[in-house]
Amino acid sequence: MISYSSKVLLYALISAVLFLPLDADYEDCTIELLVRRNTIYKAFLGQQLRIDCPVVFCNNPPPPVSWYKIEEKLVRLNVNNNSRIKIGWKMSNPLEGTSYLLFQNIVRNDSGIYQCESGGNTGHAINIIVS
């Protein structure tokens, strides 16, 4: 036979399981892209230019970030090791970092509107003016 104190403990444990929320159910894990509105970068031909997309996230590792140039439509930037445009990442703390787009030897065609995207969220437009 089960003692009275064992029954109380059993009921308490069952109640705790039924009524206490699980963290996984309540955790709203969203990725925030903290690009300021109306961001403008100005550069001269041949300069190096870095544009930033600050990212706040809730799980490690950091989320993948894609960069786009808005022309007539959204065009995803495809960069590789030989490209003069590179994508990089810099951590600022365990759940924050900055994805950046680095233009080496910038040209007039690099002028335009750029956006970063991650986790279904898109950052505000970044305007680059090359003169």
From TrEMBL:
Signal peptide interval: 1-24
- Classify the source by domain of life: Eukaryota
Q: Which UniProt keywords apply?
A: Signal
User: Does the keyword Nuclease belong to this entry?
Assistant: no
PROSITE patterns reported for this sequence: IG_LIKE
Q: Would I find Phosphoprotein among this entry's keywords?
A: no
A Pfam family this chain is assigned to:
Ig_3
Q: Which SUPFAM superfamilies does UniProt cross-reference here?
A: Immunoglobulin
**InterPro entries xrefs:** BTLA, Ig-like_dom, Ig-like_dom_sf, Ig-like_fold, Ig_sub, Ig_sub2
The UniProt record lists the Ig-like domain at 46-131
Full protein name: Ig-like domain-containing protein
Instruction: Give the originating organism.
Output: Goodea atripinnis
Taxonomy, top ranks, is:
Eukaryota, Metazoa, Chordata, Craniata, Vertebrata
